[in-house]
Amino acid sequence: MRRTLRGLSLPALAVALMALALLASSLALPAAAQGAGEHVGSGERAGSGQGVGQGRGAGAGEREGEGHGQGAGRGYFGTNQLIKLIVMAGLAGLALGVVTVLGFRFRKWLLLVSVGVAGFYLAGLLCPICSVQNVFIKWNTAYLLLVLLPVVLALFAGRVYCGYVCPYGALQELLHVRKWAPKIPPRWRRALGLLKYAVLAYLVIHALATWTEILKDMTPFKAFFALGGTPLTLGLSAGFALLSVFTWRPFCEVLCPLGALLSLVSRVSVFRLAADEGCSSCGACTSRCPATTCDGGKVRFEDCFLCGECVRTCGAKSLRWQFRWRNSVTCRGEKTDGA
Q1: CA angle 123-124-129, nearest 5°?
Q2: Rounded distance, CA 186 to CA 253, Å?
Q3: What is the pTM of this model?
Q4: Residue 52 in contact with residue 65, Cβ under 8 Å?
Q5: Are 225 and 120 in contact (CB under 8 A)?
Q6: How far is it, in rounded angstroms, from Cα 95 to Cα 75?
Q7: Do residues 101 and 6 touch, judged by C-beta distance below 8 A?
Q8: Do 169 and 134 share a structural domain?
Q9: Boundary of a domain, candidates 74, 102, 126
Q10: Residue 141 sits in which domain range?
Q11: Is residue 274 very low, low, confident or very high in pLDDT (cuts 50, 70, 90)?
Q12: What is residue 329's three-state secondary structure?
């Protein structure tokens, strides 16, 4: 079975996923539109009567009733949230296969699929800035499932969503040219990375206090995926695109509130990358890790994007996908528990 999975072509699976997304949209959207139309009709009739009864005019009542009818017609899944859930689950399944079965091979293909399907086809899939606010505001819709899926994935296997599924992070990584990247001390990057936790706290507090969302169009690349935007949002996206060429995932590492949430959850993930007794602290993984989360075989897993550079670089093959609570051996030969 393992050999069969290794022999599968990820590009073929990617094409199948795109076909599934198109099929789901062709089935879900007409049904949602029909349901919305039926509720709009009943909403218009109710709105007209309400408007006349309250003396506000049939036109005003009709518009109000139409709005309520459309809202009811969207239902729990809305017009495209079911499609997004299907695509997100499919990409997550492929990502787990790349990490656990394929040894991180075909990862670039999956990033391209994420940008194409989750990015341009679904207009960004799950906006990092909106998601941490709308999980409270839209708790009674399928939006809650859209946010919970990456959280559950992080609880199981770390930041798989960040490293593979999220189109915003994928586009940044695809734009990056490593040989042009300046050397930034790891302690500086860790200090800058604290900003994303402040952004997360601010957005959550604001959402709970006002029950409204802010900065919803300010996520870099959201204007690109939506194929339009204001001069401000387009300029912001272009600026981060240029910054991504020289800096590895700048928005992800410094400002992304969803990444901050998944980083917190990943601290208690069931599985993680860790070194076994074969590690000699040669430093190969440290020099190759683009996120500077490796230090002589020790992985700061909450900030790891599971790119696999450390695993592919390790000559001793000591970095392995391990159960969190198994007994492991550090690079110094001292026995520790997995926590």
Answers
A1: 130
A2: 12
A3: 0.77
A4: no
A5: yes
A6: 30
A7: yes
A8: yes
A9: 74
A10: 83-264
A11: confident
A12: strand
